Amino acid sequence: MDTENRRVLALMPHPDDCEIQCAGTLLRLRELGYEIHIATMTAGDKGSALLGRAEIAAARREEARRGAAVIGAASVHCLEFADLEMVFDNPSRRRVTGLLRRIDAGLIFTTPPVDYMADHEITSRLVRDACFNAAVPNYSTEGNEAPTSQIPSLFYTDAVGGHDLFGEPTHVSCLVDITAQMEQKAVALACHDSQRAWLRKQHGIDEYIEAMRRWGAQRGAQIGAAYAEGFRQHLGHPHPTRNLLAELLGAVQASP
């Protein structure tokens, strides 16, 4: 990452994914003067058992704006994919690449390649692909955006619940202490009122914020902190291999 590029992008599948998985780390980066941008692939238009798609999408857009304001994001975006209908195809690749070119961040967060649902996994693939394609001059996008200045540092967040599709623990490469940011992270997540109602109705879960705290505490215990967020860096060619989270935030290497 170019030391002069102080833009950070968190590109996640749905509104609230950012607050659950990486808001504490974004808050720490913002405290260091980094410019934070938050984007979602979808507006979460299927995330209600009571409201229609347009109604819940409108509600979740507003919740996303409120959550991003708590984090102090410079911009909030939605790429307008349909919830639960994302695919890895050329139009999708170009749309994601266009956003990366417009923001031209040096540090990007997204969901991991193995997670609990397809939208998260497809997002991971599309963002990884766009990180590479965005710097290629002859790769065209719908908006004809100029190529990015560099290949960004890419970090995958923890999988939801810290386990794979078979219930086995997933590995993160580093842990960021977010103890001082946990209360603000909880305030940001609390902006997503509709999702608490959805999870209570659809999955019988009414621990929206407490579940986030509980997992943060488990990750924190691994490094002797009250709360932490876990990440795994993409180290494949041609991505940067410097661990910016360690350099900037003192992230601790996670045990295998």
Structural features, described:
It is a single chain. This protein is α/β, with parallel strands linked by helices and 256 residues long. It has a single domain, classed as 3-Layer(aba) Sandwich (Rossmann fold), CATH 3.40.50.10320. The protein contains nine helices and eight strands. An eight-stranded mixed β-sheet has the order 3-2-1-4-5-7-6-8, sandwiched between helices.
Distance between the termini: 26 Å
CATH architecture tag: 3-Layer(aba) Sandwich
Overall SS class: alpha/beta
CATH superfamily: LmbE-like
SSE order in H/E notation?
EHHEHEHEHEEHHHEHE
Task: Using the coordinates above, name the CATH class.
Answer: Alpha Beta
Record keyword descriptors for this entry.
alpha/beta, 256 residues, Rossmann fold
Secondary structure: elements and pairs:
Elements: E1 7-12, H1 17-21, H2 23-31, E2 35-42, H3 53-71, E3 75-81, H4 90-103, E4 107-110, H5 118-133, E5 153-157, E6 174-177, H6 182-190, H7 193-202, H8 208-221, E7 228-233, H9 244-249, E8 252-253
Parallel strand pairs: 1-2, 1-4, 2-3, 4-5
Antiparallel strand pairs: 5-7, 6-7, 6-8
Concise summary:
The protein is an alpha/beta fold. It has helices at 17-21, 23-31, 53-71, 90-103, 118-133, 182-190, 193-202, 208-221, 244-249, and strands spanning 7-12, 35-42, 75-81, 107-110, 153-157, 174-177, 228-233, 252-253. The chain has nine helices and eight strands.
